[in-house]
């Protein structure tokens, strides 16, 4: 591999800022506009449009799930608890 090939095959590094973090994972935003969702050893990258589509999908699923009958003890489902905005 020559110098030109190795330079072009290296990914450019974006400056990232971590904007949210909790026990599940973290979210970072790159200066290029990409969002990174880090959960354990898995990182998913989204552009802004895909991020909002994922937001809508998760919101719809959570809404539908909370209206289902979950039995008498909802405390067994900690992911259904509401978290105040900004504390993620």
Summarize the structure in words.
The protein is an alpha+beta fold and 88 residues long. It has a domain at 14-65. The chain has helices at residues 3-9, 48-67; strands at 16-21, 26-30, 35-39, 42-46. A hairpin with a 4-residue loop joins strand 2 and strand 3. The radius of gyration is 18 Å and the shape is elongated. The N and C termini lie far apart (45 Å). The model has no long low-confidence stretch (mean pLDDT 78).
Give the helices and strands as they follow along the chain: HEEEEH
Number of strands: 4
Characterize the main sheet.
4 strands, antiparallel
End-to-end distance: 45 Å
Which structural class should the secondary elements be placed in? alpha+beta
Trace the largest sheet across and list its strands.
Answer: 1-2-3-4
Strand content: 15-25%
Q: How many helical elements? A: 2
Shape: elongated
What Rg is obtained from the alpha carbons, in whole angstroms? 18 Å
Helix content: 25-40%
How would you state the average pLDDT, rounded? 78
- Uncertain runs: none
Topology:
Elements lengths: L2 H7 L6 E6 L4 E5 L4 E5 L2 E5 L1 H20 L21
Key words describing this protein structure:
2 helices, four-stranded antiparallel β-sheet, alpha+beta, 88 residues
């Amino acid at each position: 591999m020559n110098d030109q090939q190795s330079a072009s095959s290296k990914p450019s590094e974006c400056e990232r800022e971590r904007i949210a973090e909790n026990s599940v994972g973290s979210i970072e935003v790159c200066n290029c506009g990409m969002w990174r969702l880090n959960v354990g050893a898995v990182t998913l990258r989204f552009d802004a449009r895909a991020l909002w589509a994922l937001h809508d999908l998760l919101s719809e699923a959570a809404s539908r799930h909370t209206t289902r009958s979950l039995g008498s003890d909802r405390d067994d489902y900690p992911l259904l608890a509401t978290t105040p905005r900004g504390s993620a």
